[in-house]
Design goal:
The protein is of the alpha/beta class and 285 residues long. The protein is 32% helix and 19% strand. It has 2 domains: 185 residues, Rossmann fold; 69 residues, Helicase, Ruva Protein, domain 3 (Orthogonal Bundle), CATH 1.10.8.100. Bound molecules: S-adenosylmethionine.
């Protein structure tokens, strides 16, 4: 295998698989990601998992401030030294688990939103997306690299195999756009799968909005809980309680055939359903 600039043979450090450490080594890909992101030059951007700084350093030249959050203490030390050596003053690097970071601690002025960028470790992509959804009022645009299979789920259309509850909930909360295909050969070590960079704009969510987002989440999750079953049967097998008659009437009012499967429903269908059928946790009535 070709020796890469990130290879650390003889330096007492190796990429850690459990932290999803596949580092970008193609400069062309790095520059494409940063230019496609089109962050405002004065903006603050949260970077998830800066690693050896492939994105961090060029990004710091394009935006106002970078808040880089890295879980691996060894990498924080290495990158911290490099930032000092290069006198980079607009990067704040912290040693934290992004899944435990309190978004409230980010210095975002009231009324402003932070950008997000990250070549996400594969094993945290779904939990990190959930955290982004929970904190979406503080986030503007997010530009994230996912393994292709996950990216396809995010951009999927109704009727496709990849369309699921994550698709509906993400597309409800943000405008999603595919930005770049990245081949596995762009990383060191080379992963087993290809990747894709996706943009999510939380300032342009789907319209119309619902009044009870928790109920929308329950309706979507119930509908997809047994995705091979019809809507009615999938709801019956979900962990939430509902009145079957209410569901039948809601489907009729929304012009949805109860014999359909969840994958055939559009986001507007789910919005319509969730304004007419109300789900509760089992046992809470
Ligand atoms: N951004 C670098 C690049 O593109 O070369 C590194 C990307 S690598 C796929 C993922 C990075 O996320 C690694 O540096 C890894 O240590 C870090 N990481 C893994 N889990 C993390 C977590 N829970 N919180 C913060 N960083 C994490």
């Amino acid at each position: 295998m070709k020796e890469s600039r990130n290879s650390n043979r003889g330096h007492g450090w190796r990429p850690k698989k459990r932290l999803g450490q596949n580092f970008l080594r193609e400069k062309g890909v790095v520059h494409s990601i940063i230019s496609l992101a089109r962050f405002d030059p004065s903006s603050s951007v949260l970077e998830v998992g800066p690693g050896l700084g492939a994105l961090t350093l060029p990004l710091s030249q394009k935006v106002g401030h970078v808040y880089a959050v890295e879980k691996d203490a060894q990498l924080v030390e290495r990158l911290g030294e490099e930032l000092n050596r290069k006198s980079v003053a607009n990067v704040t690097l912290t040693n934290q688990d992004i899944l435990r970071m309190d978004f409230e601690t980010l210095p975002v002025p009231p009324g402003e939103r932070i950008g997000v960028i990250g070549n996400l470790p594969y094993n945290i992509s779904t939990p990190f997306l959930e955290r982004l959804l929970d904190n979406r009022k503080k986030v503007g645009k997010a530009v994230l690299m996912f393994q292709k299979e996950v990216a396809r789920r995010l951009i999927a259309s109704p009727g496709s195999r990849e369309y699921g509850s994550l698709t509906v909930l993400i597309q409800y909360h943000a405008r999603i756009f595919p930005l770049l295909d990245v081949p596995r050969s762009a990383f060191y070590p080379v992963p087993k799968v290809d990747s894709m960079v996706i943009g999510l704009d939380f300032e342009k969510p789907h319209e119309p909005r619902v009044s009870d987002e928790e109920n929308l989440k329950r309706v979507v999750r119930s509908a997809f809980s047994h995705r091979r079953k019809t809507l009615l049967n999938s709801f019956k097998g979900s962990p939430y309680s509902f009145a079957p008659d209410e569901l039948r009437k809601a489907c009729e009012a929304c012009s949805i055939d109860t014999g359909k499967r969840a994958e055939a429903l559009t986001i507007d269908d789910f919005i319509c359903l969730s304004s007419r059928v109300f789900l509760t946790s089992q046992g809470t009535g």
